[in-house]
Design brief:
The structure holds two protein chains of two kinds. By secondary structure, chain A is mainly beta. Chain A is about 10% helix and about 55% strand. Chain A has one domain (about 1-275, about 290-350, about 455-495). Chain A has helices spanning about 1-15, 70-75, 95-100, 145-150, 250-255, 260, 320, 325-340; strands at about 50, 60-65, 75, 85, 105-120, 125-140, 160, 165-185, 190-215, 220-230, 235-240, 245-250, 265-280, 285-295, 300-310, 315, 345, 350-355, 360-365, 370-380, 385-400, 400-410, 415-425, 430-440, 440-445, 455-460, 465-475. By secondary structure, chain B is mostly beta strands. Chain B has nine helices and 50 strands. The radius of gyration of chain B is 58 Å and the shape is rod-shaped. Chain B starts with a helix and ends with a strand. Classes of the chains: A mainly beta, B mainly beta. β25 of chain A pairs parallel with β1 (about 20-25) of chain B.
Chain lengths: ~500, ~700
Amino acid sequence: MKVQRFLTAVLLLAAGSMVMTGQQVSTMYYMNLPQNHFYNPALRPTSRAYIGLPAMSGVNVNFNTNFIGFSDVFRKSESGDSVISVLHPDFDIDNFLERIKSLNYINPDVNLQLFGLGFSAGKDLYIFIDVNEKISGGVSLPGDLFELALRGNEGFVGSMIDLQTLDINLMYHREIAAGFSKDITRRLRIGARGRVLFGISAINMVNRNLGISVLDDYSHKMITDVDINISGPVEVVLNSENNMIDSLVINEQRIEDPYFWLNTSNPGFGFDIGAVYQLTPKISLSAAINGFGYIKWNSEITNLNAENEFLFSGFDISDLIEGTREFDEIADELLDSLKNSFTVTDRSTPFTTKIPGSVSLGASYNISDNLLLGLVSNNMIINGRLRSSMMMSANANLGSSLSFGLSYTAINRSWDNLGAGLSLRIGAFQFYTVADKIPVMYNKIVLPESEGSSAFNLLLPDKWNMLTVRAGMNLVFGNRIKKRSDRPMIITAEEI
Amino acid sequence: MKKTGLIALVIMSALIGSCIKETYDMNRLSEKMRISPTLAVSAATGEVTLGDILKPNDTIGYDDENLLRLWIRKDSVAEISLDSLIDLSEAFSFNGSYPVGDVEMDNFSSQYQITLDQLSQFFIPSLWSEFQSLDDGSPHPFPEFPLTNTGTHAFTSFANFEYAVLSGGRIYLDITNNLTAPLSGISVTLRNGDDNSPIGGTITTGTIIAGETWSTFIEMNETRVYSTIVAEIIFNGSPGTTDPVLIRMSDAILFEVSGEDLKVSAGRFVVPLQRVGDSGSEEMVDFDLDDGMEITEFSLNTGIIDVEVTSNLQVYSEFSVVLPTITRSGLPFSESISVNPMSVTTGNFSAGNLLALLNTNPEQPYNSAPAQYEVWISSQGAMIDFSSLDRIDLNATIRNLNVDYVKGYFGQLVETVEPDTIDLEIEDILEKISGEFYFANPTLTVEYSNSFGLPVEINLEATGRNKDKVQNLNLSPFVLDYPVSPESDIESTYSIDKNNSSLPALLSLPPASIVISGGVKMNPAGNTGARDNYVMGNSRFVASVEAMLPMDLWINNLQIADTLNNFLRPDPDDEEGFSPKDLEYIRLDLMVSNGFPLGVSVEIVLHDSISGVNLYTLEVPGIIEPAAINTSTGRVTSPVEKTTPVELDREFFEAAEVADKMILVFKLNTTGAPSQSVKIYSDYSISFRAGVVVKPDIILN
């Protein structure tokens, strides 16, 4: 019965995760690590307290993409005696373009825990404080761009080159969070975490409409409604004649100013809430709403707006034929019209960026006191798009000393994502490393000699859709796990 | 469980180390890189209306119905003034030669007396003695004496001549008997003292009583008379008297010879001042006019009459002329000129403000005017040789003529225009075209202002030639409109078109050259006797020509070919430059909505002039289709739409790399040609949209 419930929960989670476009979900979720409250504030480690030291407690590097891999760009020739690139005449471009999605994204981000503190306060209360540096970015490339570059625009005659998914975002902010988890009932624990955010610098693109319609007569209609908001020491120099961007100048002096890095003029707020419910002594359910927040950028603002429509139907040479104008005049007029259609306005209006959050649903089954099978469905909404992943893990938490987990994640239409995590506690020092996408297959790249360096081999994952690595060291104190005769809850939950 | 975890960890590590899917040796990375996207873009668009392309100017225009017309107007192609039509200065010239004729000579007289004493010398001595004795102062009966021949007696020479052939006049002989007895008669024979030639016959008087003068005369008729006259005198005696009379030996018989009313035809004499010839009489002066001109009247504003008088006389002369029918301000023209003996004298008179009537002679009511002339001569007391045949020649011409008007008949002047070939210099163009076209309604209009009041017939011949094709204009001679007095000028037009000539066929030849000839004939009907030609001094014939070519035409397979240097051929020295091989193809999708009744086909030939081979031929038939027309009006009813792809593929570009020449051939056809003409209106339009599809083959390495 318990197994059935578990399996039912698995099926439900799987059904809710059919759209597998990725977000990081970590093997760490069911590991005995203080940092797991990042995924669900209701989760707790077994230690009573921990301290995360600056730059040592955790560096998290995430890389998500649904873009192409090395083997999509390079292949061996049919004879096998050479390597050909995607631009080689013998390369199967059609095959390459089939692999390009309509929306191709590359999302790197880096989290650096500057400071962490967690401690049990009382019997059922756990308080934690974190200071994190977060750099996140993302580039979305419409698949039509590649089609356009490699096949040209003839295939778009009568339709549209959709560039609305073109997106560029980069954000660097500092997060100071404080939260708690508390046992509400014997079965239910809730957690909450409030995050005060301080934006340091950001580039945010709002693409409401961008595209090129290619009409049947080969006329091109370009539609633009794009904002690029910048907060940072960047000066945009516009051409006074045509209001086009002449140059971008970075104020290096400002960057060298320490106060730039301590900027508090761009505040924001975020929150996480979560809950863990012990359904049965072996089965627990968890849910969390994580990561949502916003930052209002007020300082060193640059807003660039381009909004217009431009129809190019060719050079109207009626006047040329009539002899009333020269071709240069017509071309200049068209160019001016084009420039005027895409004027850029530079304002300094504060803007707000939303931090995408996720909704996680988890279920776990304790096979034994030390072995747990878990399932987490993570659904993230980024730019209005849902990215889901499903992780199945097997975690072995051996007391508070060793925690090991293996996971399998389906994400980004990628079905071969294995993850593993390991934490080892030696005294007060807890070392951990977690990788949620361990490449199974690698390509060996033999790089040629170059000046100053000899030839060497590089191993690149064959598929690099997702890469999540986290590692660090915590100072942990105490152990809340007590041997009980009854079946314990999951290790991250204090016995209720 | 710890063991389980450790084992799992080890296995994972092993798996990682052994899963090399593929090895890529980047040392063997092929540098071949190429992309070949297909790019489609709307390159050009446009809509043009004929009226916007061809704006009205001096050559192009539209009529009230907006039909396109080409016209060329040339003002003042002909400007003919009176001088170029009639040279009146040459017309009005006069030559006259006037013989002096017989002139008068002053009367002369001389006396000779024979006294009784001289007479008695010829008596017998006894009678002489008797008469001597009777001269005692007492009256005595005058003795009778017999016939007595006293011989020849010379009169005193006449001073006013040496000799003269008297053509008229009389020589009088007066014999006065101053004796106191009658004379029974005297026989006198006058003779020239120089050659003893008789002057007249022997004159025999009757009885001359005492104190009586007996006169007689001899008519001169070409009688030569010398200044010395002698008389042979024979007295026929005297009966004496019965009554005593004084007998004086000094009493004489007076003989007087005198000449009166003498006319001389020749001689050497003093010519007294006199008017000679037929002076004072009126004669008709004929003007020397050329070419059958019959002038009846003319008026001069200004002018100068140059007169040259040549005198063969040894006398001073003064020539005066009065032209009664040539007036100035109502007064007859009169002038005189003095001429020295045996000289040429020139002079000039104003001919301004003259009105000449040359039609007053009923026998010749033209070209003549009465002239009254006088010639006064005088030798000014000098003895001169004279002949009545001596002449005064008069030559008069008029220059600086400013004619007010001339009336009459100016003759049937024919001016032939020598054939002149006009090379239209379009041979280069004609070599490039073939096919046919036909302009249905060209016109050549001559607008003229004519103030010459006389008919002029124009015969214009024009022949167009194009290689072996010839086309004549076939225009019949026509007469220009002219004013009829009192109208001074008239404005009119004459049009040459399809109705009176083969102008359409000529222009549609098309001619490489046109040979123009013909002529102009004044008074084509000849002299009708009306003499109603009328011109004024400021008469002008001014003509402008307007050639109008309405675009009412058909074009049938008109091919225009031109050979250019192949501009698509890449520069072999430009290695980095664009090469047509970089393109797989270029396709031009031309979408045309044609509102013109003209269709175009295009052919592009890439030609290698070295081998003489056409390497590639691109035919695009019907790239523009002609629009439908209303067959009765020739006007387009609706445009025709067509989309034509023109693809230049790799073969084309490969040929373009070799060919040095590109031959462009355009073939034009109008709707329904050649059986149907079309008309081109200003509101015809053509809209087009040209899309270009390019598939470049871009080699990146």
